[in-house]
Amino acid sequence: MRNFVYPAMLTPDPKGAFTVRFPDLPEAITSGKDRPDALAQAYDCLEEAVAGRIADQLDIPPPSAPRRKQILVPLTAPMAAKAALYLAIKDASLSNSELARRLKVDEREIRRMLDPRHATRLGRIQKVLEFLGKRLLVSMDSAA
Questions:
Q1: Residues 6+ apart with CB under 8 A from 3
Q2: What pTM was estimated for this model as a whole?
Q3: Which phi and psi angles does 30 have, rounded to 5°?
Q4: pLDDT of residue 9
Q5: Mind listing the pLDDT tens digit for each residue in 14-35?
Q6: Are 125 and 79 spatial neighbours (Cβ–Cβ below 8 Å)?
Q7: For residue 66, what is the DSSP state?
Q8: Among 103, 92, 108, which Cα is nearest to 127's?
């Protein structure tokens, strides 16, 4: 089973700001003026890093186990679903065109489903994942 909850390290600076780094995604670095702002920025940074990897057709590494003093940052449900779809297509060694042909849809629909800026219905992604032999699971945890 694959999840999309990544450990991040918050490093304070002497002026009270924080830098956030994701060890699994070296390009994902952000900062905030204080801890709450840094945490808010971390969510956006993680989304952009994963979106960039999808756009550049790069691997999305699995999250490593969190270490002491690291925090966990999840992808939003829509972005996690898109990342899962991207990985399922990649695991199946299918091109967008080939998947579209098998699903009897236009290739643009597959591109839109993978586009992080396009609001794709979760049910549609779920159906394509099922077609690829995968199952989309959603879980809930306390926000604190």
A1: 63
A2: 0.91
A3: -150, 180
A4: 97
A5: 888 999 999 999 999 999 999 9
A6: no
A7: P
A8: 103
What does the domain layout of the chain look like in residue ranges?
Answer: 5-74, 77-131
Are the beta carbons of 24 and 7 closer than 8 angstroms?
Answer: yes
User: Tokens 């808010």 — which residue?
Assistant: 40
| CB-based contacts of 32, cutoff 8 Å, min separation 6 | 17, 18, 20, 38, 39, 40, 41, 42
Which CATH number applies to 5-74?
3.30.160.250
- What is the 3-state secondary structure of 6-36? EEEEEEECCCCCEEEECCCCCCCEEEECCHH
Q: What is the pLDDT of residues 25-81, one digit of tens each?
A: 999 999 999 999 999 999 999 999 999 999 999 999 999 999 999 999 999 999 999
